[in-house]
Amino acid sequence: MPATDAMRRRLTWQIAEVSDVVDETPRTRSLFLNLRGWPGHRPGQHVDIRLTGEDGYQAQRSYSIASAPEAARLAITVERIDGGEVSPYLAGFVEPGDRFELRGPIGGYFVWTAATSEPLFLVAGGSGIVPLMAMLRHREAAASTVPALLIYSSRSIENIIYREEIDRMSADDGGLVVFHTLTRRQPEGWAGGSRRIDREMLKSVGIAPAAMPRIFICGPTPMVETAATALREIGHAPERIRTERFGPTGA
């Protein structure tokens, strides 16, 4: 298929039908979608979703793909943003059988595949874990032995998205190290971090610059900027750091 035809296909709206929903946290839900002719995606890409009201009003938002390319169904994970136009519906009211418009996959900068040989260094804040989880799921599905590290910041243990799956992955795979830090509330006996991600945490827990890891950072803008700056100061090459951020408009 010519490149222009493939691009046109990715940017054409199609109907997605919800096949299943899974509540990940009190504010976050994963939607599993059926689509006809899905062209496939790379971990880190996103889709656009468009909702149309009975009066014809439309609202559109972008959401990272959560599923691995190898998965049977496309999945997105949506955090409910109070006052938003799209996320309250997707994260709170959608049921199996519901349909909405979707186009994608979109994006080529913030992507990773198991064909890469360098260590994988992931830094996430809140729902910024979603595209990074697609990378970890792909790494597992491809039986990749590339060393991987995830530093994941959440407000509390109840807010850790994919908590059980991440714990299972790290327990089953000696090549994957996961470090959680909780910024607002920690349970009794908590052994992880208890502050926001900062330079000292990235230096002491992270992969050393000499290993030349591929680094992906995703989360709220302040966290992403802080982490990216700190990693450069520690000695990581800027061209090896990829960032994706979100703000209050992603609702």
What is this structure, in a nutshell?
By secondary structure, the protein is an alpha/beta fold. 23% of the residues lie in helices and 32% in strands. The two termini are 35 Å apart.
How would you sum up this structure, described in words?
The chain has 251 residues and is of the alpha/beta class. The chain folds into two domains: 3-106, Translation factors (Elongation Factor Tu (Ef-tu), domain 3, Beta Barrel), CATH 2.40.30.10; 120-246, Nucleotide-binding domain of ferredoxin-NADP reductase (FNR) module (Rossmann fold), CATH 3.40.50. The chain has six helices and eleven strands. The chain has helices at 3-10, 87-92, 129-141, 163-172, 199-205, 221-234, and strands spanning 14-25, 28-34, 46-52, 58-64, 74-79, 99-106, 120-125, 148-154, 176-182, 214-220, 241-246. Helix 4 (163-172) links the parallel strand 8 (148-154) and strand 9. The radius of gyration is 18 Å and the shape is globular. The chain starts with a helix and ends in a 5-residue tail after the last strand. The model has no long low-confidence stretch (mean pLDDT 93).
What descriptive keywords fit this protein?
11 strands; Elongation Factor Tu (Ef-tu), domain 3; 251 residues; 32% strand; Rossmann fold; alpha/beta; six-stranded antiparallel beta sheet; five-stranded parallel beta sheet; 2 domains
* Physical arrangement of strands within the biggest beta sheet: 4-3-6-1-2-5
- Domain count: the total is 2
* The CATH homology group name of the largest domain: Nucleotide-binding domain of ferredoxin-NADP reductase (FNR) module
- Give the C-alpha Rg: 18 Å
